[in-house]
Amino acid sequence: MDYNNLTLNGNDSVIRTLFFTDVHVSGRNPRSRKDNFLDTVLDKLNQINDISKEKNCDFVLFGGDLFDNPSVSNAVAGRTAKILRQFNRIIGIAGNHDLFGNNIDNIKSTQLGLFEKAGLIDLMYKGEKLIITKNDLTLQITGTPSHFGIDHDHIKEDYVVDTVNADKAIHIIHGMLMEKQLNPHMTVVTIDQIKETKADLTLTGHYHAGFDPIQIDGKYFSNPGSLSRVSSDRSEMKRKVGVLYIEISKNDIKLEFIPLKQQKGEDVLDRSHIEGSQYKEIQIEEFMREIKVASTIESMDITSIVKKIATNKELEKEVVDYALTKLSIAEESLSSE
Description:
By secondary structure, the chain is an alpha/beta fold. It is built from 11 helices and 15 strands. The chain has helices at about 35-55, 75-85, 110-115, 155-160, 190-195, 235-240, 265-270, 270-275, 280-295, 300-315, 315-335, and strands at about 5-10, 15-20, 60, 90, 120-125, 130-135, 135-145, 170-175, 175-180, 190, 200-205, 210-215, 220-225, 240-250, 255-260. The chain has a 7-stranded mixed beta sheet with strand order 1-6-7-8-11-13-12, with no helix packed on it. Strands 5-4-3-2-14-15 form a 6-stranded mixed beta sheet, with no helix packed on it. Strand 4 (about 90), helix 3 and strand 5 (about 120-125) form a beta-alpha-beta unit. It is globular and about 55 Å long.
């Protein structure tokens, strides 16, 4: 971000904003979708812009994964840019799908990086601090984009805000923050692990199902869920897609989930590939379980495999970082071919 202070105009000392996350704009229809996915998800962005104007929002916050991959076509990026240009101001972070190999250092070679350069979105990076002033109210915003080792290494450093130089503070992170551990094979960060944060509101994405705002010790933690439904499991069929409206004053933070207009799950999500291949899915799941047991690797993600091998071999951090950087460069080269 090329600025660290922002002064807002207005007659009151209340900051109003919306938070949305995990849009996954793509020119390719997910296997589960029966509609035109791109048209549908771009309509969601238009709805958010309309709501931001109806609510007189000062800016809009974004939690990462604008795109489903870092090198979507120029045609798709162009349609997206046309909509984002209508927003007052978007402040956000990069998600793992926005990056090559989850390497934040390569952001400039991605479509999201191009959007930042074009002034369509103001991206925040780890360690940056934005102070927003509206009359006698000050708000601090910090952010942690997706990166190597998120939710694994330096969890406190990524999630916990140590100092606040304003009346209120918001922290945005693209990580797997949840109220509790639901699956022992899934790496998550629980709210209990980071509840000492001094941020009044921690906003997160990545976990598509989302969760209602949770208040602990006067601090809020919230994830409104992905803006798009890219799978056809039963929970997604019923899930309401929406944005979080945030109203901040010196003494209070008000949160409201605003659902967007959407079609019924059965009208846009196709479960035939699931229901018609349940036996095959069970076989694959059993096969994957055997592989994981044999190799002690809990994720088939290439980055996780490298990190697991590095742990087993006790390799130095510099060696691991070098390997991951080479992987991200290779992924970038493949996607451009």
